[in-house]
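To whoever picks this up:

The nightly regression suite flagged Xaa-Pro aminopeptidase as changed. Nothing in the input moved, so I suspect the structure step. Input below, exactly as stored in the fixture:
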Amino acid sequence: MADTLSALRSLMASHSPPLDALVVPSEDYHQSEYVSARDKRRQFVSGFTGSAAAIGVDPWCVSIDTAKRWEHAFAKKQQKLVQTSKNLVDEVWKNQPPPEINPVIIHPLEFSGRSIKDKLNDLRENLKQEKARGIIITALDEVAWLYNIRGSDVSYCPVVYAFAIVTSNLTLLYVDKRKVSSEVLSYMEENGIEVREYGAVSSDVALLASNQLNALSAVKGTQAEVTGNGTEEMTDEFELIWADPTSCCYALYSKLDADKVLLRPSPLALAKAIKNPVELEGLKRAHVRDGAAVVQYLVWLDHQMQEIYGASGYFLADVGANKKKHSETMKLTEVTASDKLEGFRASKEHFRGLSFPTISSVGPNAAIIHYAPQAEACAELDPDRIYLFDSGAQYVDGTTDITRTVHFGKPSEHEKACYTAVLKGHIALGNAHFPNGTNGNALDILARVPLWKNGLDYRHGTGHGIEPGYYEDGNFGIRLENVLIIKDAGTKFNFGDKGYLSFEHITWAPYQRKLIDLSLLIPEEIDWLNSYHSKCRDILAPYLNESESAWLKKATEPISI
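Regenerated output under the current build:
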């Protein structure tokens, strides 16, 4: 068997293109239920002869929804899902990295805008309305938001590996206690939160199911003072335990009585998404500092492209750059350039790290939507090709995400037409007014219409910001992305008493003038562009030095109609 698999993997590796996986069906060329001995390929490769397979899974690593979906699908084939008591991969992973012991950090009220007490009161009110006596919280961002804590256990996301359980009179945090300083422990106790070991959540959920979960008396005494808000009205008749089927793992769900589980989206998801005034102001300030970093990067990159490659630069579109290059040590790559961008961000107040790996992409690489450059194999910057960078940062007061597309040589007319179509969609969506209750799919079309008019489109959602794009395989990619907040539109009328909403841009960085075909813009679009650029100048100027401010002023000069 081992020799067979080794030989098969060798063929997979030599295949063009190389194969990472191979599906081996049990059927023959005619999809027959019963096949000849010659066609029993699955049996030959795996040794499996039956139809009632037992399929193992680590129940900690799959959600309730996923496990139920698999169980349903497997049952149709007389197969069953089996929960393993240990993760079998971990058992053979001899050099598995050890867990990191990163400290739990208190997220101050000056940045969170709401106290733990207020958040718990709202959560317990949700429990009361749904007649649930407790909730299991497994999503790391929800635990961090509820308890106003942060950490660094996950790359690009300031969260702590932790679970939480909240009932009418208990507030529990499950975390590796080595991460909890005496200061943080005191903070938890002051807020009526009992800290328990990370691994204790399994047995505690079983106790929760049988209504035997109790907290330490000292913390229980504090709990009543901290929460208040009439939670004592929750009675013993409430039997349901709330679990989010998309985030709660199957291992914990299996400890509960399935008939007494409320499978609903977590009430914290929406509460966390609706930013309070303090969070909104923090988010705006973070984007201002981030915008300054992006402009500083563009100024630096503009200079480097001219100095190293003889490019015409950000502003000019001369044909035939000098094509000079000092030496191999002077070259710019997708990774060395993105490292410089990270450096500009790291110099800003409240910087804590990147919010995702920077997509720094040249030419055909920019057409790969989630391109991930590697230092040892990434492309060198090219003054004759489009350069797209999609990046962001985590600051204490907010998270940023921005994409800009630039060209340091002479863009083709086709590239300009595509960029302009993307920009027109970007502007159209940003200017949208829409009734309360409108979903994202209904607005998505606004970003695509200018592309559709030319038979173009993009293969991703418009999503969390204004993120239209165009990707031409093997040639170039264009994306423009701003983060927006939703606000009241202040419309003259209010048909149906729905309330009408609009967007407010909080991302600040210029759009490259020489990539825009001005003949394709209507006056309203030019007005928007001039207004946005004017705000860029005013907002970012205090964060830039004299030469950077002069560059930005030139990059945001008004366009004459």
